[in-house]
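re: the backbone from monday

yeah here it is again, tokenized this time
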């Protein structure tokens, strides 16, 4: 049905490409979740293919309800069609202004010491992505920028359901950018705090994270910054490991190495990361960080909790943690043992691979379920 206008004139249905941009606008404005926008667009395509005259807001009004009633959707359509509905390229920082030719740039969704992350949509097909643009301060080190781009492009070969994909990377406007798969949902910490899943479900999430990291290790790639904030729980419940910006390519032919052997999140850093011994960083470093994650999964707190980094680092380097069961009575002994083995201070005393860690965890879970 054509949409009636205030002057009584009916407007024809907009082209599908415009409907896609309208859906992106609604997601960007946080009016509807991405999965609802995707489903509604697919219904519009199918019904138009059958010859029906249908608009996106008609599908949304029927399926969403609540605040998005027909009148409100009409107002949002009008806002979308006004000039300047999206961020103008001239208002975007240098690299994003150039990328706006190929991507519809949305709002910032994250910021760190090295980069700002924006939600975006790929113009050619509407795929939602996240664009990470490095900060201005890195412009004066072009060799480092080229190294980041080479490393990111090498990581495109990763294809696993538990790993957020890197789709593209390059240099524009004197700095580097990385385009990643965008995953809706929440980080692991937020998920555990909100949903409060039982032990079996928490262990299942952790087990899937082990699978994802093991896959990366088989492909010669370390993470080196595993933490709850770098694990995202998608709407379907699947955990996805993200942010391989600190990854080190182990293939010597690529010649890709980190500029900082100690990079990581303090609570989850291994002793060798704290000591800054670059040669000591290998897959067992990730095993240690995974041990901290398992400890939190079991005990609801990290093995060492200190407000000041210097005190935290001293304890990681000098102390052995208590068993998780000291904080969570009833934790099976086999889970305690697997966790503490992953947290050994010397890499040679830990599990020698994530696969070995996973096997020990599977055995502990099997024992728990037989009790």
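seq for it, each position gets an aa:
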């Amino acid at each position: 049905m054509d949409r009636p206008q205030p002057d009584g004139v009916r407007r024809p249905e907009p082209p599908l490409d415009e409907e896609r941009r309208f859906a992106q606008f609604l997601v960007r404005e946080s009016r509807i979740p991405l999965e609802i926008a995707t489903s509604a667009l697919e219904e519009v395509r199918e019904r138009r293919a059958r010859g029906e005259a249908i608009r996106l807001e008609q599908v949304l009004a029927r399926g969403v309800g609540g605040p998005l009633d027909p009148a409100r959707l009409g107002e949002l359509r009008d806002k979308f069609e006004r000039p300047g509905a999206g961020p103008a390229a001239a208002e975007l920082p240098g690299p994003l202004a150039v990328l706006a030719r190929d991507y519809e740039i949305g709002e910032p969704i994250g910021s760190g010491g090295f980069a700002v992350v924006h939600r975006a949509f790929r113009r050619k097909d509407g795929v939602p992505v996240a664009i990470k643009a490095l900060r201005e301060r890195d412009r004066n080190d072009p060799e480092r920028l080229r190294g980041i781009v080479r490393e990111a492009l090498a990581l495109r070969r990763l294809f696993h359901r538990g790993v957020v994909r890197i789709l593209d990377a390059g240099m524009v406007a004197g700095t580097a950018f990385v385009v990643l798969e965008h995953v809706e949902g929440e980080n692991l910490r937020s998920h555990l705090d909100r949903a409060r899943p039982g032990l079996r479900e928490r262990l299942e999430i952790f087990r899937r994270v082990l699978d994802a990291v093991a896959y990366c290790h088989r492909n010669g790639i370390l993470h080196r910054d595993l933490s709850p904030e770098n694990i995202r729980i998608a709407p379907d419940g699947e955990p996805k490991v993200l942010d391989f910006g600190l990854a080190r390519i182990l293939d010597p032919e690529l010649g890709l190495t980190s500029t900082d052997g100690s990079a990581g999140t303090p609570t989850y850093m291994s002793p060798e990361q704290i000591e800054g011994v670059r040669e000591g960083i290998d897959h067992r470093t990730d095993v240690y960080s995974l041990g901290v994650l398992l400890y939190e999964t079991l005990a609801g707190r990290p093995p060492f909790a200190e407000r000041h980094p210097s005190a935290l680092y001293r304890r990681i380097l000098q102390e052995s943690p208590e068993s998780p069961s000291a904080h969570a009575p009833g934790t099976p002994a086999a889970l305690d043992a697997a966790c503490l083995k992953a947290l050994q201070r010397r890499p040679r005393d830990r599990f020698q691979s994530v696969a070995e860690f996973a096997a020990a965890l599977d055995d502990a879970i099997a024992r728990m379920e037989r009790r």
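The longest helix spans residues 199-218. The chain is about 40% helix and 15% strand.
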